[in-house]
Amino acid sequence: MISIRIRSGLKNGNPEAFREVFRLLYPRLKGYCKLFISEESIVEDIIQDTFLALWEKRRTIDPLKSIESLIFVMVRNCCLNYLKSRRLESGRVGIDDIQISELQYLYQLDLKGKEEKSMEEMLIKSFQREVEKLPPKMKTIFMKCKIEGRKQKEVAEELGISLKMVEKHISKAKEHIKAKLLKQYPLLVALVLMFME
Q: What are the pLDDT digits (tens) for 3-53?
């Protein structure tokens, strides 16, 4: 958890405090973004835009409150806005297909939550635990395709297996993760899995 001293420094415009927040949160934010978006350059842009917005709004920060939840919500909003615009541009989904009421409910959970960790952080930890439990080959394929964002054909060639086998492993991994996490985070997992297709 980021200390009050660092949060106060950030609020007061201390560049060192800003760098420390970035250093502490960047790996988790990157992993979180990759639940939604596989393209590395887009993930980097979203994180950079989020930290720029955080710096611009630093004077509104309450040093007594968790900054992690705020930043994760900002990143989530950026991811969802990006995906929404991309899907609308491609004509694959209509505006009514994005379930705004569920998203608003999730935002309220973050704002009202008393947890030390944000909902996103807890989901990421649970997601990572379930990925770690996958059989080794399935885990490797899932990580390469869904976390690293590599093409299924490329992974099939690298591992010397058929494209169908890669697809089968990914499908089974998704089923496993969904079955385990839906019990604990029904709205969050439904949202994440919608963007894991």
A: 888 989 999 999 999 999 998 888 888 887 887 787 889 999 999 999 999
Q: Are 11 and 61 in contact (CB under 8 A)?
A: yes
The whole-number average pLDDT for the span 144-149 is: 78
Domain termination site, one of 43, 63, 98: 98
* Average pLDDT rounded to a whole number, residues 72-83: 84
Pinpoint the alpha helices (H) of 12-145: 15-36, 40-56, 67-90, 100-112, 119-133, 136-142
Q: Say how far apart CA 147 and CA 43 lie, in whole Å.
A: 12
Tokens 């973050």: give the residue.
Answer: 110
More confident residue, 118 or 161: 161
| 111 is a domain residue | no
Residue 144 sits in a domain whose CATH number is 1.10.10.10
Under DSSP, the state recorded for 58 is G
Q: CA–CA separation, 2 vs 70, rounded Å?
A: 12
pLDDT score for 96: 41
> What's the gap between Cα 7 and its chain centre?
23
How crowded is residue 97: how many other Cβ atoms within 10 Å of its Cβ? 11
Distances (CA, A) of 96 to 59, 93, 99, 100: 36, 8, 7, 8
Distance CA 119, CA 130 (A): 17
Determine, yes or no, domain membership for 22. yes
